[in-house]
Amino acid sequence: MARRVLQRSRPSTGGKRLRPLLVYLCAPEAGRTGDGVLLAGAAVELIHSATLVHDDVLDRAQLRRGRPTVWARDGELVATATGDYLFARAFTILAETGDMAAVSELAECTLGLARGEAMQVEQARQPGTTLEAYLERCGLKTGLLFATAAALGGRLGGLGEEALSHLRAYGHALGLAFQIADDVLDCAGSIESTGKPLGTDLLDGTTTYPLLVAASLDPVVARAVELGPERDHVLEVLARVADTGAIARSRVLAHAYARQANEALDELEDDLDTQPLRAVALGVVDREV
What we know:
Layout: H1 2-9, H2 18-25, H3 36-59, E1 63-64, E2 67-68, H4 70-74, H5 76-95, H6 100-123, H7 131-156, H8 161-188, H9 191-194, H10 200-204, H11 209-217, H12 219-227, H13 234-243, H14 246-263, H15 275-285
Antiparallel strand pairs: 1-2
């Protein structure tokens, strides 16, 4: 069901809306009737959009979802201000729920997002980055917002703290599965499906799991990660990445985190219909976008 919802609701350039979907699905059906869950979903999506706008400034990204980024179209000052506005608007919206614990959780999440972004800058063009360091960064940049979305849905839907802890664990593992699958798409997807050129991470110097695995096995890839390849050689380097088995290993790891996410739901059967959430975990690793 959730996979059908994702497919039906996905606009051509507007993203997957996965995080607000998590807010909704993590609220019990009886708790979805008020405005709280809707407001939380909007706040989470605004936070996500803000991080993308700021990421594009740091990465000097030309395209996002197939369209020019705010940075490419309007410059750094406008892009930075846009991201700042989206962050502020998210908290204004969530404050309308009157749930200060929810606002506090989102605030802690944004602090973690900033730490994760700083780690990505530190790890840029570092082919020796360890798996542990990579996962810590992804846990902050991606897993934390997924976990927060899940917890906000449960909280505003009326679930207790014990259930919320399981939802956070689900969201965190789901976020890692999503990020690793996303890293794979940058190496083995297409601009038609992802909305950005293949090998963007390699060109930007972002150390992703498949690139790190390949760099540990192939000195040519390691040099390309460290120094940046010529644009005409990107596909050649990505072919070497695939030849090392790094793509296959990355997919295996993404599926392992998807299973871990579903295992976190086992304690929630009496509180929540978990079948849609289990379908989401499968969908994030078996996708083309």
